[in-house]
Amino acid sequence: MTEPRGTTSQGLPLVLEPLAEDLARVGEKFEEILSSVSQRTHDLIAHSPRFAGKRLRPALTCLAGRIAGGGVTEDVASVAAIVELVHTATASALASGACFEEVATQRSRIGS
Length: 112
Known about the structure:
Layout: H1 20-34, H2 39-46, H3 56-67, H4 74-110
């Protein structure tokens, strides 16, 4: 299977290729953090594609660490993973809320 045009073999947008190693560390931290959250949070996150998007938020966090002169330390990788985790959880919660709202609206229309 070939990768979409403009992406690396890891599925990263080409512009993020210089950060591939940093983002791999962030991905490991994301999985580590996800394994230690509550079951409810885990279930919420597990239904969305984990760490599969453009990875812009963690990339910007890694770049900020580099610009600040500290590089991508364990702490920076953890913060980048947390930023992505909060974004993913929020997006999942909003999507779930929208689904529940649509169901409630449909039920009220049919009189159930």
